[in-house]
Amino acid sequence: MFDKLKNAFKSLTNTIVNSITTTELSEDKLNEIRDELFMQLVESDVAVDVADAISNAIVNYLRGLKVPRFGDKESVIKNGIIDIMSKLFSDIPDVDFMSEVIRLLQMKKPVVLLFLGPNGYGKTTTIAKITHQLMKRGYTAVWAAADTYRAGAIEQLEGHATKLGVRVIKHGYGSDPAAVAYDAINHAKVRGIDYVMIDTAGRMHTDINLMNELSKIQRVSRPDLSIFIADALLGNEALDIAKYYSKYVKIDGLIVTKVDAYPKGGAILTFLYELKKPIYFLGVGQGYDDLRPFSKAEFFRQLIL
Ligand code: GDP
Ligand code: GDP
């Protein structure tokens, strides 16, 4: 995974290892390294601002750097770059999603999870995957079909629910989605169900009516976590839509889907840097087990080491 992004860092370390000696890198060489890295990051789908920030930070680290004549230059440099990346992204926490939602359950029941994002990004599949993970650990869940707008949305959710054996709370199309969410939470309270997952409507374009609707769902359901589902393949579009959403609704964290079909990898850095929200999971396929916990530290090691 992320082969293109990995190659960008690999060619960076190769260039540095080949050029650095016991003397410092020249200013010309540093400029060359910066431009080359910037280009490769942008080609790997990293947004221009983010690519700029990364290449500047790395070149600043390299300026004046001397490595010992003997010893493992490569690992000194790679670990240095990991440090720089960790600093640059230090304001985004790593959250272990499963531990977090299980911890929340010690304090309240049900725990309410709200899923946000445009149609087609993988919202219902992700709800199913997370539910499957929780059910494997012995927890129970109920779903709220709070996309009462798009024809077929309720049936799509029910398709997954039947496979997993989960109850779906639904009203008709055109009904108030906040009321559906409210009912699902009450259902969970009465039945002692652990988790309520709320599916919501999404559109590919910005839409103030939708934002008002989502904001009402959030006010009424008071979710413990509101999760934006971001399609890696639509990096820039997903970023713009997430920024638009975050003006109207609170987003606690992201799940990035379709990473299995996305060798570029750069959107992950872009989402982190631009949205400053933790990424809980990467979606890595269509099966219910195709969900991988994400941690920045692990991601940087994977890219650079
Ligand atoms: P929704 O409209 O946001 O609820 O999107 P769906 O959950 O229906 O997903 C849209 C399509 O993307 C479906 O064909 C899913 O199987 C597929 N999909 C979702 N997540 C992933 C993923 O992580 N990897 C791949 N390859 N496909 C995914
Ligand atoms: P099992 O009962 O958990 O062994 O699941 P199955 O044998 O039915 O499915 C094999 C794999 O496909 C598992 O990872 C399931 O989670 C996943 N899976 C099953 N049905 C579906 C489905 O309708 N949609 C998706 N996206 N994954 C599914």
Condensed summary:
The chain has about 300 residues and is α/β, with parallel strands linked by helices. It has 12 helices and 8 strands. The protein has helices at about 5-20, 25-45, 50-60, 75-90, 95-105, 125-135, 155-165, 175-190, 210-220, 235-250, 265-275, 295-305; strands at about 110-115, 140-145, 165-170, 195-200, 225-230, 255, 280-285, 290-295.
What does this 3D model show about the protein?
- Helix content is 54%, strand content 13%.
- It is an alpha/beta fold.
- It folds into 2 domains: 3-88, Up-down Bundle (Four Helix Bundle (Hemerythrin (Met), subunit A)), CATH 1.20.120.140; 97-294, P-loop containing nucleotide triphosphate hydrolases (Rossmann fold, 3-Layer(aba) Sandwich), CATH 3.40.50.
- An 8-stranded mixed sheet has the order 3-2-4-1-5-6-7-8, with helices on both faces.
- β7 (279-283) and β8 (291-293) form a beta hairpin.
- The model has no long low-confidence stretch (mean pLDDT 95).
- The structure holds guanosine-5'-diphosphate (2 copies).
- One guanosine-5'-diphosphate (GDP) is lined by residues 119-125, 156, 257-258, 260-261, 283-286, 290.
Structural class of the helix and strand makeup? alpha/beta
The total count of strands amounts to 8
Beta-sheet strand percentage?
5-15%
The level 1 CATH classification of the largest domain is Alpha Beta
Indicate the overall shape.
elongated
- Bound heterogens, unique: guanosine-5'-diphosphate
H and E string: HHHHHEHEHEHEHEHEHEEH
- CATH topology of the largest domain: the name is Rossmann fold
- Widest beta sheet: strand line-up: 3-2-4-1-5-6-7-8
**Helical segment tally?**
12
| Assigned CATH superfamily of the largest domain | P-loop containing nucleotide triphosphate hydrolases
Family: Belongs to the GTP-binding SRP family. FtsY subfamily.
EC number: 3.6.5.4
GO cellular component, one term: cytoplasm
Subunit structure: Part of the signal recognition particle protein translocation system, which is composed of SRP and FtsY.
